[in-house]
Amino acid sequence: MSTITALGVGSGLDLSGLLDQLRDAERGKLAPLETQKAQQQAKISAYGQLQSALTKFQDSVTKLNDASLFQSLSTNVRGDAFTATAGKTAQPGSFNVEVGQLARAGTLATQRVAAADTALTGGTETTLALTFAGLDENDQPRQVEVTLAANSTLEEIRDAINADKAAGVTASIVNDGSGYRLALNSTETGAEASIAGTNFETLVAGNLAADPGTVITQAGQDAELKVNGIDITSATNQVEGAIQGVTLNLEKTTEPDQPITLRVEQDTLKVREAVGGFVKAFNEFKGTIGKLTAFNAETGQAGDLNGDGAVRSIESRLRGALSGGAGESELRMLSEVGISLQRDGTLKLDDAKLGELVTGNMAGLGEFFAGADSKGGLAGSLNTTLGQLLDGNGIVKRSISGAESRVKSIGERYERMEVSIERTIDRYRVQFGQLDSMIAQMKQTSAYLTQQFDMLAELGSPRKK
Length: 465
Description:
- The protein is α+β, with helices and mostly antiparallel strands.
- The chain contains 10 helices and 17 strands.
- It has a 5-stranded antiparallel sheet with strand order 1-15-3-11-12, with no helix packed on it. A 4-stranded antiparallel sheet has the order 7-8-4-10, with helices on one face. Strands 2-14-13 form a 3-stranded antiparallel sheet, with no helix packed on it.
- The model is unreliable at 1-5 (pLDDT under 50).
């Protein structure tokens, strides 16, 4: 009997096609698992969107939970002679500021030499002494010494000064048309930091230009200003302490007897932005929930978290925290600070009402959101609730972990079922092979019998004469 190498060869039946149909039918059992897995993966993504919206809302709540927000001050300068910033210790007030003189750094240009790349100093290491206008601890002119290598050129002297971070000056070379000068510029502004002299002429004695000229100095100076008529000097143009908690950055002088008004006042803009950001973030959170839980009656399409218990729990807890108000504070409910809850669950901000509070009762507004003393405000209560919802053991993380576990479980079931299906198909393949062989054998037997019957028929028939 011949060996069958492919299904259907012996029988003439399309057994391979039938086996493929059986495989497709068996694999159809995997479809529900694939659907379940896709649903759980979609839920994980949806929970991620929910978590992101909650985190953004928590960020806005955290800003309102900072009492310093409602105590922050801003500065208003009516002019361009200076700018000002207010720190934590600043106090509200109005100040008249006159800038009579800006601080500047001192400069010094040495006498001329003929060339910048010719050795000027002697054959041994030497020291360049830089003298400043200020006094040291012994009430002597302050000096800084810079070590120079033997046979230093003007360029090498410049480089040695610039390499010494403690020199107190920066150095450059100036060609004034008649020779080369070493130009020194104090690194700090103010009279005391001003470079006043050097021993350059002594170090390069005999190597000056034919027309050496004279040392040229421009003394540094302190800034001079008046605040409400009080004379103030500063070594820098950044003046701190002249007004408590305020830093003035001087940029140019003012006209004589024409002071510029500086106002230090409550920073209402930051508070407005924080409250507006709170309302916006909550409404975006509600919008995210609406999209994730929506249901389209016409198409029958439902959001990935439609009917989800975790979403209902989150909404319920936040609604309770918002409606609970701020306890014993002067302002107790959101409606009293210009925020109302709409029918669709979103918040609406009354800018006019909020404006009245930030200008007329900032303390009450701060107490409502951030609390007074040890008592927590609405933002503190919300922050606690949001922290519980978002932490590692919170409902959001648990929901994500649950969906991930279900995806893993479905994947394991899918793999087991695939193995089972392949075993079933293998069994069908063996049975089809046996069927194919049996039919082939039957065909051979049938052909043999037919042949024998034909021969018998010929033998039994009358002979022709």
